[in-house]
């Protein structure tokens, strides 16, 4: 079992729709969870950080965390073509403190 | 505020050759990370420095990879000799502190290495 698992996609949604990206993790002791956006040929950029169960909203982005189910998700409302990128889920290891990244989900928003 | 700088941006070498990458972190950031990102995968931590000391190098292939951070600022990552499977993007990142929580890591533009 991978430590952090994501569906590689691509996930294709029409412009204006809600994009839902999912991530599961194996480290039950993890407390910090991150979503990074990575445009093709560019470096990762942090877009969301969450550590409490429930929802955290920032503009069009909502991160959802369920520690009991070891599941974290990212919702993008009113998706725009500029949101087309790979979204990386990262979990901070409770043992080492380092970030463990999933393989990323490629999102395509079609005009 | 200037971001994380890396050079070169691209490098093509033959297998068994050596290569070195350079990273200059954001000013004042004590923690520096080197990641390897193979196409289609997420970044994998190779080595983490706190100032000029190594915190974690558990996933660094030490028979061929080496890294140093002299004076706790710039860092170099070297591969000698390179193998085909080393083809990847090498990302340098830095953060203000080493502690957990948010502790945002800022990534440089990366060096794309192709080993032929």
How would you explain this protein's 3D organization?
The complex is a heterodimer of chains A (111) and B (116). By secondary structure, chain A is mainly beta. Chain A has no helices and eleven strands. In chain A, the strands form two sheets. In chain A, strands 2, 4, 5, 9, 10 and 11 form a six-stranded mixed sheet that branches. In chain A, strands 1-3-8-7-6 form a five-stranded antiparallel sheet, with no helix packed on it. Chain A starts with a strand and ends with a strand. The mean pLDDT of chain A is 95. Chain B has 116 residues and is mainly beta. Helices cover 0% and strands 47% of the residues of chain B. Chain B has strands spanning 5-7, 10-13, 19-24, 31-37, 44-50, 53-56, 65-68, 75-79, 88-95, 106-107, 111-115. The model of chain B has no long low-confidence stretch (mean pLDDT 94). The interface between A and B is medium-sized, with 22 and 22 residues.
Helix content of chain B: under 10%
- What is the CA–CA distance across the termini of chain A? 36 Å
Order of helices and strands of chain B: EEEEEEEEEEE
* Biggest interface, residues from each chain: A-B, 22 and 22 residues
Over all CA atoms, what is the radius of gyration of chain A?
Answer: 13 Å
By secondary-structure content and strand pairing, the structural class of chain A works out as mainly beta
Shape assignment of chain B: globular
- Percent range for helical residues of chain A? under 10%
Beta strand count of chain A: 11
- Specify the biggest β-sheet of chain A: 6 strands, mixed
Q: Any low-confidence stretches of chain A, pLDDT <50, length ≥5? A: none
